[in-house]
């Protein structure tokens, strides 16, 4: 409800145009003269001044003349500082003021709606008639309360600048000054200037709760702090948009722990194609930073902490400016960003975000009022711990903190512009609010803890490595590939209930004896003793948290894998049961099959077909068993991946109710004599969600490095979690390195992250298995990587089904075969782009029972594939 804006005499509108066409242009940043912003609206008023004032930055503030056309007030009171000493060292702008004894309104014509800066200068110089330090008043716009019962109690501290960024729609904006009863209002100078549209985007990252924040455009903002880290103050003259930046020294909790770093401003680069421009912040801000002091002086693993006093009960927009001016090469700097103890970014990686050094970057965070405790905002930066490259560091170049308007559309108190109180009306609901605030902060705390746990897990390889928890024990286990479980006992007992209430060992016997499970042949204990040389340690081919796996041989020469449970392991018992449950339902060429079992004398023994070529992993790298397997060719690798994919596809879709494997990794993909891949170890498997469910809620289990991040976050299991793990397997096959290798520098530890980083840079070939160099057809590689990359999508819904992955891998194999065929057959080398391939259908789908062969035409132009057969699962 605009007040006073109708009083504007139309005849004097020209004056407004006169003002708005004022001569202020953004000062071109010295380092990037091309950036120039000319504000559409540009009102600069030296209130109460006799003549216009030109500042050292070139801006000219016009005096608002008596009976000013855009001011409606009951009387003109213009005052000027008379005491020379109080005016001696302040800007000429503030030595005069306009005083209001009643509500008075400035009305401005707005040429271009959108965000505008409003800056109000207050300097209560001593005056014989008016006591400005005693003035108490309220300032509002048509929509927002900017100041409520505001006063500047002393002039000694110098002029006070209140700076706002307000969304203004419509063609008029008002500033209404209302003195409190028996008091006056005053103002020394007013700026109302268009801000660039790109300055404040609509979205930011919310830290409490964690997520995206949208709708920023609707909020009025008040600048609380604008800091230039590690550098000097930047005056409006040095800024592209007339902003002032303070040095940050005073806000560091431990100044000795940091050091100033700087580069010449010309070294600061702004990314091509917009986003960050010198309008966001000038180069001089990006060219200096606060970094961690020499690790020699202090423990390198600490946080740089800034503490800023703010008004509680408001949410804040926190903008951090970054520019990596300390690294000498890419991918060296990783650090975490916290706001009030809540994680803002984990492992911020400027190299990847900006693809360069000394490139300006900024990030916006919204800190909800519920997280602003003790009237402080604490900004903390710490190196991503656990980094092995020996250069833990963190930097911040600039920081802006802006208060966001509240429910009352106010930046000062809970009264809205019409004076109505918008807080909680009665004590009951205040109590509720407190309760919910506590709930909220507990939620935030829980979120913080969870993230901290993730962080710990991710950064502390030793911890999880030592976590010798229950794991697959079907076939060789690699000590460095332990699995973890977030709530082992609980999850275990839940699962136990799922599979019946057998509590005693004899209970298990009756479980086995039910016979309805189709467990195959029954072995006597004596038979298995003989087959394994009385469970000779020499026969052990694998060890897991729950028992050992022995190589056995029957009288007829059949080789067996004999998995003997350790009866004292409770978790093992659960896995044991799960495995039986699952395997009893499953028969597939690409799943390891159960031959039989033995439950004599409380034993828990399962007997499987023996996979003579062991786990896939041993064919890629670091063979732990010591038996040298020849490395697989690219074509063989593709065939193995296709086999495994087919096994998983069958698991997901083939059984009556789909099954989620939950522990897909290269040690659980076994190869038989003919290198046929089979998926093993169903100890963690779960029935897939039924039609009406979308997911299974469950404690997070699986293997480190393969774990679906979405599953980890939400603890909701779907088939797509297997797809994610399989994506990691695909990269492992391509790069021939473990999914997690704690021995590597921090950014390389996690294969999924590392590979995606290089993929985004289009340089994946740099981390390919060197053994494959020159043998992969580029089109095959592209198809393969496309499939792998899709598997690693952040959200399950964005990942393909196993059927789709399978189809892509088959296509990649065809492309490889086509390329090999071309190379082998010189007559084909320059032939048409249509290549007919003989395609053995036995490799399309055994489970589907199809037989025979078919021709597949590959059109290299379009990349389309035409096949006369429907590949199952598409
Ligand atoms: C002028 O300012 C000085 C210092 O602030 C103060 O001591 C003196 O009393 C002031 N004079 C008047 C007339 O206000
Ligand atoms: C101005 O008002 C303030 C607050 O009412 C009071 O403390 C102060 O003494 C007054 N100053 C003068 C010069 O009257
Ligand atoms: C004026 O300058 C003096 C000395 O430089 C300083 O102590 C004082 O705080 C300044 N006053 C203002 C209002 O800036
Ligand atoms: C960092 O720079 C600021 C501003 O130039 C200066 O005040 C401060 O003393 C410097 N700190 C260190 C540790 O050099
Ligand atoms: C620590 O500082 C001392 C003296 O400046 C230097 O001799 C030493 O090499 C430094 N140590 C490390 C680990 O940087
Ligand atoms: C850094 O601060 C965050 C948030 O307050 C905290 O969780 C973390 O432990 C701190 N890191 C170090 C090394 O002190
Ligand atoms: C802060 O959180 C409360 C409660 O969830 C919510 O109502 C409010 O909109 C949030 N404010 C901002 C600015 O995000
Ligand atoms: C808030 O302040 C109180 C008292 O000063 C202090 O005990 C508490 O630790 C502070 N809390 C935080 C989160 O800073």
UniProtKB/TrEMBL annotation:
Q: Which Pfam families match?
A: Malectin_like (PF12819), PK_Tyr_Ser-Thr (PF07714)
- Detail which positions bind ATP: 563
Q: Identify the species of origin.
A: Colocasia esculenta (Wild taro)
User: Which Gene3D superfamilies does the record match to this protein?
Assistant: Galactose-binding lectin, Phosphorylase Kinase, domain 1, Transferase(Phosphotransferase) domain 1
Question: What is this protein's name?
Answer: Protein kinase domain-containing protein
Q: Residues of the signal sequence?
A: 1-28
Which stretches of sequence are listed as region Disordered? 484-505
Its transmembrane ranges are 434-457
């Amino acid at each position: 409800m605009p007040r006073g804006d109708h009083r504007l005499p139309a005849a004097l509108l020209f004056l407004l145009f006169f003002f708005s066409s004022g001569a202020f242009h953004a000062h071109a940043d010295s380092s990037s003269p091309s950036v120039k912003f000319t504000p559409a609206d540009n009102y600069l008023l030296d209130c109460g001044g006799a003549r216009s004032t030109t500042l050292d930055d070139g801006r000219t503030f016009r005096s608002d003349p008596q009976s000013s056309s855009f001011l409606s007030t009951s009387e003109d009171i213009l005052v000027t500082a008379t005491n020379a000493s109080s005016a001696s060292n302040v800007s000429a702008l503030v030595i005069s003021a306009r005083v209001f004894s009643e509500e008075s309104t400035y009305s401005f014509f707005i040429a271009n709606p959108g965000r505008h800066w409003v800056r109000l200068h207050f300097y209560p110089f001593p005056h014989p008639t008016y006591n400005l330090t005693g003035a108490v008043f309220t300032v509002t716009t048509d929509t927002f309360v900017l100041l409520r019962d505001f006063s500047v109690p002393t002039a000694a501290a110098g002029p006070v600048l209140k700076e706002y960024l307000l969304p203004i729609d419509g063609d008029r904006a008002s500033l209404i000054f209302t003195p409190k009863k028996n008091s006056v209002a005053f103002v020394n100078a007013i700026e109302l200037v268009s801000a660039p549209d790109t300055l404040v985007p609509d979205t930011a990252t919310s830290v409490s709760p964690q997520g995206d924040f949208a709708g920023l455009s609707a909020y009025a903002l008040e600048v609380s702090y604008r800091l230039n880290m590690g550098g000097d103050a930047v005056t409006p003259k040095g800024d592209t948009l007339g902003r002032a930046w303070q040095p940050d020294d005073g806000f560091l909790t431990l100044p000795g722990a940091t050091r100033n770093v700087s580069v010449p401003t010309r070294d600061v680069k702004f990314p091509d194609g917009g986003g960050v421009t010198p309008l966001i912040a000038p180069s001089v801000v990006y060219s200096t930073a606060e970094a961690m002091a020499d690790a020699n002086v202090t423990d390198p693993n600490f946080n740089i902490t800034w503490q800023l006093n703010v008004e509680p009960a408001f949410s804040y927009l926190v903008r951090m400016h970054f520019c990596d001016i300390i690294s000498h090469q890419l991918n060296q700097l990783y650090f975490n960003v916290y706001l009030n103890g809540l994680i803002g970014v984990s492992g911020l990686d400027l190299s990847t975000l900006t693809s360069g050094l000394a490139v300006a970057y900024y990030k916006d965070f919204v800190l909800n009022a519920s997280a602003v405790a003790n009237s402080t905002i604490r900004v903390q930066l710490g190196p991503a711990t656990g980094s092995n490259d020996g250069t833990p560091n963190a930097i911040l170049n600039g920081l802006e903190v802006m208060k966001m308007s509240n429910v009352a559309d106010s930046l000062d108190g809970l009264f809205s512009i019409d004076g109505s109180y918008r807080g909680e009306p009665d004590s009951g609901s205040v109590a509720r609010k407190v309760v919910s605030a506590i709930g909220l902060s507990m939620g935030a705390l829980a979120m913080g803890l969870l993230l901290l746990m993730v962080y710990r897990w991710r950064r502390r390889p030793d911890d999880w490595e030592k976590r010798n928890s229950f794991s697959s024990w079907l076939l060789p286990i690699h000590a460095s590939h332990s699995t973890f479980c977030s709530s082992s006992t609980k999850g275990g007992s839940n699962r136990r209930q799922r599979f019946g209430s057998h509590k005693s060992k004899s209970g298990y016997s009756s479980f086995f004896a039910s016979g309805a499970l189709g467990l195959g042949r029954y072995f006597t204990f004596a038979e298995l003793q003989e087959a394994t040389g009385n469970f000779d340690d020499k026969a052990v081919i694998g060890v897991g948290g729950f028992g050992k796996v022995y190589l056995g041989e029957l009288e007829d020469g059949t080789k067996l894998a004999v998995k003997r449970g350790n009866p004292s392991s409770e978790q093992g018992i659960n896995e044991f049961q799960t495995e039986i449950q699952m395997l009893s339902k499953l028969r597939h060429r690409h799943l390891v099959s159960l031959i039989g079992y033995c439950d004599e004398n409380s034993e828990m023994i399962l007997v499987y077909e023996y996979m003579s070529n062991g786990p896939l992993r041993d064919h890629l790298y670091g063979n732990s068993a010591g038996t040298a397997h020849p490395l697989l060719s690219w074509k063989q690798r593709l065939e193995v991946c296709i086999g495994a994919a087919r096994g998983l596809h069958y698991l997901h879709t083939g059984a009556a109710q789909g099954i989620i494997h939950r522990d897909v990794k290269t040690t659980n993909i076994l190869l038989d004599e003919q290198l046929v891949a089979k998926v093993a170890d169903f100890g963690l498997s779960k029935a897939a969600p039924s039609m009406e469910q979308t997911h299974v809620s469950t404690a997070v289990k699986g293997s480190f490095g393969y774990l679906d991040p979405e599953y980890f976050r939400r603890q909701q299991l779907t088939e797509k979690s297997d797809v994610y793990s399989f994506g990691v397997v695909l990269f492992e096959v391509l790069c021939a390195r473990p999914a997690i290798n704690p021995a590597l520098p921090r950014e390389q530890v996690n294969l999924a992250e590392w590979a995606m980083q290089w993929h985004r840079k289009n340089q994946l070939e740099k981390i390919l298995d060197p053994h494959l160099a020159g043998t992969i057809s580029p089109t095959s590689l592209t198809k393969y990587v496309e499939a792998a990359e899709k598997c690693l999508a952040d959200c399950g819904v964005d990942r393909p089904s196993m059927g789709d992955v399978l189809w892509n891998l088959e296509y990649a194999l065809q492309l490889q075969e086509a390329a090999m065929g071309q190379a082998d057959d010189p007559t084909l080398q320059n032939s048409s782009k249509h290549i007919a391939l003989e395609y053995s259908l036995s490799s399309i789908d055994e489970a589907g029972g199809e037989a025979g062969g078919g021709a597949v035409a590959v059109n290299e132009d379009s990349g389309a594939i035409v096949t006369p057969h429907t590949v199952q699962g598409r």
